Amino acid sequence: MQKFLFNPIEDHTYSIVGYEGDEDNVVIPDNYGGTKVTVICDNVFKGHSEIVSVTVPDTVTDMGEFVFEDCNNLKYIKLSSELRNLWGYTFCRCGIEEIVLPDKMRSIPPFAFKECKNLKRVVCGAEMKKIYSWAFAGCDNLKEVIHKDDVEISPDAFKNKKLNT
Question: What is the dihedral of CA 110, 111, 112, 118, to 10 degrees?
Answer without folding.
Answer: 140
